[in-house]
Amino acid sequence: MPAVAKHTETAARRYDVVIVGASFAGLVAARTAAMRGLSVAVLEAKPDVASRVATTGILVKEAAEEIDIPHWLTRRVHGVRLYGPSLAHVDLFAPGYFFLTTDTGRLLGWLAAEAQRTGARLLLGARFEGAERHGEIFRFKGLNIEARYILGADGARSAVARCFGLGRNTRFLVGLEQEYEGLGRTDPRFLHCFLDSRIAPGYLAWVAPGPAVTQVGLAVTRGRKADLPAFLAHTRHIFGYDEARVVERRAGRIPAGGVVHPWSAPGVMLVGDAAGVVSPATGGGIRLAFHFGRRAAHAIADHILHCGPAPEYALAPALPRFRAKRILRRALDLALPNPLIDLALTTPAMRWVASHLYFHRRGVGGIGFDAFQEQLPRWRPGEGSLRNGAANDAG
Fold first, then answer.
1. DSSP E strands: which ranges in 120-213?
2. Can you tell me whether residue 35 is helix, strand or coil?
3. Same domain, yes or no, for 39 and 115?
């Protein structure tokens, strides 16, 4: 990984674009903008992009198709095991579809190295404290740098949005998560997802086998308590948490209100969680961060280098409206009674809804789940992983 400079500049330096936040959206935008010929700086308040990671980092297939990621940073997971409150479950699978669980901190580090390799400058320990416009140039308070354009990729509580009076996220899911080493009872063929209105009202809980650790967490809708100890107690006999070691704990907010308004101003644009470009229903935002990080960088480069339209006008028609997912979010906020969830779990209607949400109709024709499982080595508790390239891309 290229050397990363701490921010100690004393002379003002001008960039075409300054990106605030070394997030998924920010780092992809930095790499793309630098490849398009812009001078780019990324401001990151943390001393290391991999520290204090606040996301589980599960990639849907569409995200993996946006950005080619080294296989050693991921584990490929083909199915979803969906549990009801009674812990009865159904197994969901779409031929040709998969998820990638990731070593999230190392993935962010790899994206940062890629951005630097293309010429972007990463300024760690550089907190955004505001910027003022002087004609066509923005001057950053306390940092001695200037920019022609500012891209805010600084998360759900965006300081860029606050500075420039842009829209701000007001609806959130609240998540808690722990990472375990040695959680050998976890079947790595599945993302394990739990519906339970008592433990995870308004969303769900999960156990996700990753390349090096297993991520165990839950998220709840606003105004509800996130009770991770209750989930651990409820599922301890399945996964054997006492036999493993907790190596990381995290908490965070997931925007759940859709795209903020306004999300841009002359010379300034929000992207990723800062812009609310996150599915209100599922909380999924990494694919959208990759996609719109790239698109935002394209639009900024076209504007600065090739007399293109203002980037916000170029990008506006492509932004998701999330109409159906906002309706589904309101339904999920109602938190159906647990007996009703258990009753619905095995119905064809529930399978259809769950498959649509998880697999996005992206499976290709081919084998069914039973036939697919026959091609995999038999997994036994304690083995931890499947020694088969089709089932485990952890390397």
1. 121-124, 131-134, 137-140, 145-152, 172-181, 190-194, 205-209
2. helix
3. yes
